[in-house]
Amino acid sequence: MTSDTTAASFDLILRGGTIIDGTGAPSFVGDVAVADGQITKVVSTTDGGISAKADREIDATGQLVTPGFVDIHTHYDGQVCWDKQVTPSSWHGVTTIVMGNCGVGFAPVRPGSETALVELMESVEDIPGTALHEGIPWGWESFDQYLDAIDTPYTIDIGAQVPHVAVRAYVMGDRCYDDATADDIAAMADITRSSMAAGALGFSTSRFYGHLDKAGNHVPGTNATSDEIMAIGEAFAELDHGTMEIISDHLDSPDEQYWIEHIARQTGRPVTALVASNVSEKVWELADRLNAAGVEFRPQVGARPASVLMTLEGTVNPMRQFPSFAEIKELSFDEQRAKLLDPEFRASILADEAKVSRYADTNKMISSWDKMFVLPHDLSYEPGYADSLAGIAEAEGIHVREALMNAMASGRPLLYLVGDYPGDLELQRTRIEQPNSVFGLSDGGAHCGVLCDASVPTYMLAYMTRDRVKGPKLGLEFTVHKMTKDTAELYGLSDRGVIAPGYRADLNVIDFDALALEDPHIVWDLPAGGKRLVQRAQGYTATICHGEVTYENGEHTGAMPGRLIRGGQ
Questions:
Q1: Which of 356, 354, 390 is nearest to 371 (CA)?
Q2: Alpha-carbon distance 467 to 46, whole Å?
Q3: pTM, full prediction
Q4: CATH T-level fold of 69-304+423-488
Q5: Hey, which CATH number is domain 2-67+523-555, 3.40.50.300, 3.30.70.360, 2.30.40.10, 2.40.420.20?
Q6: What are the tens digits of pLDDT across the range 130-189?
Q7: CB–CB of 564/148 below 8 Å?
């Protein structure tokens, strides 16, 4: 990186990089000039490049230059109150996030009922409640007051959606788990409309069986009638912006598909639905039919299936199913690892009768030995049977519990891939390649003790486009498009995601050959000493937001050019 002290025409020039412009077009080598936070000139080297000077120049020769990544599925709703870098997403080339997904968030809220929303977020998204209680300043009631409170400088841009759970709790109070009356529905639609007018980017709702509160109840709105959802959706009809996001177990249901189509047609606004591995081709057929008719319905898929990382320190620790583990659970984690290698302690674990969790999914997760994989050292997240505890035990001629204790003692996480994992990610790849899919599901800021999928932009580039051997790779230009222009436009952010004059100067300079994920690990850096899994990356030479270099070689520069995005304004 060099500086130029002569008279300059631009604030910043990236020189000689391989430009992947976000549109899906073929890459080319060229220069990118930036002034006043915007891209002002892009010239290929075959056309002579840019001869003018800049206040700062970055030599991007031999490196990729991409738009900043736009992550549309995060849960930083509380974290933005204390973490203005919005990590770990900003470590992975992300320059814009959308939060307020899955129907959960922190506004609107009636004074005195804040704890209920914290407990819901803790239960649904595995964010420590102690951290949320200490880190959120509160003081707001309406959604627009919440937006005002978080309208501060950041390293990246942030945008928020209206969460159905919070709206329901605000309108219905203790009745929020019940069916809504006509008056309730009208009030929810009014709040959604006013929140959108104040700058919300969209509305989200959860109809997913796995989203439970602390008492084991499905979160408010899970069983909301189609009349309620359609009435809220129709609040969008009077607006010129807004996207509706749905997580649902019923996407194959004709009733669910009916109201999805109704909302999309009546409002003219985009609808995106999270697609799990068990969803049939019917949802893709619906998307093909609607999009062909000019109605935007975008099934949302992630880089990997839903997954859980299991560690001694994390939320899910399979050793807890054995009564003898209680003898060492108060020891330090290093001492626990040492005990797991002690022959006498191991003998007690081998003799234990495993406890049964009240949740069938948890039991399956912690005892399906052929589906519990030691996280591959290449961080492919695409393990085979040989990586499983069953495979390891078979190869080494030991009891599977011994294989478990060896893995837990090593400190390497165990990976459980939710759903019917067939041994590769071909289903994931083909769904990402579906013409109407949209890339999401990073869950940045959430599931703090079980995963760190905020790292998926790096994974998509380093693994899915470069290192994958278990099946075809994704195209580099295609993958960058799916994480930039495509995601930005779904939420009406048409000013970013493309490297062309007039677009925001949100950019990455990436040493593609060196791009790599580091191992995920637990840190205790949340308010009140709360824990979270984080995952760093190597290979990001520079990340630029609104024309300012925010990260250099993985280190924050101190720049805070990011802001709250207000939809429709």
A1: 390
A2: 30
A3: 0.96
A4: TIM Barrel (3.20.20)
A5: 2.30.40.10
A6: 999 999 999 999 999 999 999 999 999 999 999 999 999 999 999 999 999 999 999 999
A7: no
